Fold:
Amino acid sequence: MHAVLALETSCDESAAAVLRRHADGRIEVLASRIASQVEEHARWGGVVPEIASRRHVEALPGLVEAVVDEAGLALGQLDAIAATITPGLAGALMVASVTGRTLAALHHRPFLGIHHLEGHLASVMLGDAPPQAPYLVLLVSGGHTELILVAADGGMKRLGRSHDDAAGEAFDKVARLLGLGYPGGPAIQAVAEKGDATRFRLPKGRISLPGGGFHPYDFSFSGLKTAMLRTVETLRQSADPLPLADLAASFEQVVADVLVQRSIRCAEDHGVDQLVMVGGVAANRRLRRCMLERAQDRSIAVSIAPLAFCTDNAAMIGAAALLRLAQTTGSTSLESGVAARWPLDQAHALYAADPPF
Ligand code: KG4
Ligand code: ZN
Structure:
């Protein structure tokens, strides 16, 4: 049985959690807290890195104290202390990284520097029916839109990606265009609820292949964003108020359609009968519903991360740390820094004696 403290400050949520992995492999969240800075960034229409770093410094110590208290474990009893060290805003990442390394040194515990996307992938293990590899993951967050094949041996291969905006970024930009505020995903979802999703015809953003035809699993959301802008410009020429609900619902529907269609196609082409969906956008109700319905039609099983662990949180970082602990004996050097970018398939390098950054 392993227990970890996990810290997350890669963007605009400060978070801490304590988790335990039982002998049968079940992962239990003993305590998980998030201090969101969303309201503060909303004033600026997006995340301001400098403000994010300062707020993390203020919030993290209190969160650590609270989760350790709630879990009823002393820091010295933990098997490791984990923190997200890549990818994200460098100044923001530094807060969890320095805090985690300091606590690890003070309490003589191993430190695990976690890849944020590995955390999102592990978030599905916090649900009632964790999937068993092989499966195909649709990772949809504010910074990434990727299809990742997880093989039976745990190896990962990226089979699809966005060539421009991530799906979450598209939600945020379109919400701003519609005057709905930040973060865009929840704002669009709320307005779209009563909208007519068939009213506006919007493009599905396909990527041309050099030899002709289209890439079957890659995405593009910039054309959709431009189409929304043109539609809004045309509608503004009339005196009527903007049909916000129909615009939001039509946008949400086309995003859900492309994500679901290409994920299912990719799974079928690779002979995989399990789909996993994680990341902030996986919290979207319409997308969750579409994915469940259409995958069921094709006899593909779907596991979606629990709603509470879709958007950034520390429990998913703890889950990734526990899975690492079960597999390797290596830990992350206390000399290791943070990196704004690092490929997911190179995450194992974070545990090497000679760290890459
Ligand atoms: O995973 P996440 O919290 O942070 C990143 O690692 O990027 O994802 C944040 C993104 C934002 O773009 C936000 O607008 C989007 O997830 N999001 C949603 C919903 N909740 C959050 N998008 C659509 N529907 C939602 N309900
Ligand atoms: Zn994230």
